[in-house]
Amino acid sequence: MDKLHILKEKMVHFYHGDPGRIHHFLKVHSFSKWIGEEEGLDARTQEILEATAFVHDIGIRIAEEKYGSCAGPLQEKEGPAAAKAMLEEIGYDEKLIDRVCYIVGHHHTYTNIDGIDYQILVEADFLVNLYEGNESHEAALTAYRKIFKTEAGKKMCRELYCIEE
Fold this sequence. Notes:
Number of helices: 9
Shape: globular
Radius of gyration: 15 Å
Strand content: under 5%
């Protein structure tokens, strides 16, 4: 079994009994994988992206337990340590772990996005959050204009939310 499969199983177990959160990270992973493949990422960057997609919201449960809130900044604060522990247990290398943890610790920060892996993760998370939040067409259009940079992410956003350029 490859590491990504093990990571997915560990995250399902981590959110045992919380189907909404499991559905969320599986959808974010699916969009991340698709966008990354469409954008032609190299194998290493694709692996970082997919691992990040599985663990991007790992800080939610911890933030809720500690602070009674799952606000984005609290997720960013609590997520990296939990992601690191899980990734180390699986046997990922230090450089991959560092990059995943950096993105987990910034994935609700939309300024200074410093790599295609981070950009795609943000786009995939927006694709899912717009749907799960039942956001308006105007919200989707604003996100499209302000957040989406990759051609594949823009295409998917246009298709999902009927955005005309």
